[in-house]
Each structure stands twice: as C-alpha cells, then as structure tokens.
Recover the amino acids of this structure.
C-alpha cells in the first residue's frame, strides 16, 4: 500500500526524518542527488534512531554505535547485526510516497 508521508520540502538534503507509515516507524532520507530512501527507523542493535544518523550515497550510520545499513538492501555492514526492512520510496507531485506491505 502506498502512503504520502509529507512534502519533499519537509526534508533537508543529507538528512532523515521519521514518519509513522502503516503503523510502522519508517525513516525517510533525502540524498544529495534528490533521491529518497526509506527503511525501518530503529536500529536492531540497541534501538538507535536511524533518521538521526549520518548518510552517505548508499547507507546510513546509526548515531549510537556507528553500525551502517545499506539503503537498497537493509543489510548491516557489520557481521552479526540483523538487517532492517527497506521500503520503496519516490516523489510524486512534490510529495514523498512510501510503499509498505
């Protein structure tokens, strides 16, 4: 199911924001190239807020313990840490749309 979570102008390039989408907490990021990415908002290691993490072109780093999660797959780059779910995200008519389910 698709959800319009907010205006693209709500996000600053290089930063994330958490939205409640379909009963889930999802972190949405606006990358420097204008692309949007979405994944679970909570780090599986110790519950860190991924929307507050530093981002690179293809991953976000949890601000608590520096575990990095790849946007496309949700895989953690460190061994032994569970992945997070990723969600398709796009911009339509200036709104961020996230697909859940």
């Amino acid at each position: 199911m698709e959800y319009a979570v907010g205006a693209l102008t709500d996000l600053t390039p290089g930063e994330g924001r958490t939205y409640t989408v379909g009963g889930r907490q999802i972190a949405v990021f606006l990358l420097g190239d204008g692309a949007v990415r979405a994944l679970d908002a909570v780090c599986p290691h110790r519950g860190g807020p991924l929307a507050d993490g530093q981002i690179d072109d293809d991953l976000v780093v949890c601000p608590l313990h520096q575990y990095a999660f790849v946007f496309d797959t949700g895989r953690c780059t460190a061994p032994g840490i569970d992945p997070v779910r990723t969600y398709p995200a796009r911009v339509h008519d200036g709104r961020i749309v996230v697909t859940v389910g």
In short: The mean pLDDT is 96. Residues 2-99 form a domain with the Rieske Iron-sulfur Protein fold (CATH 2.102.10.10). The longest strand covers residues 15-21.
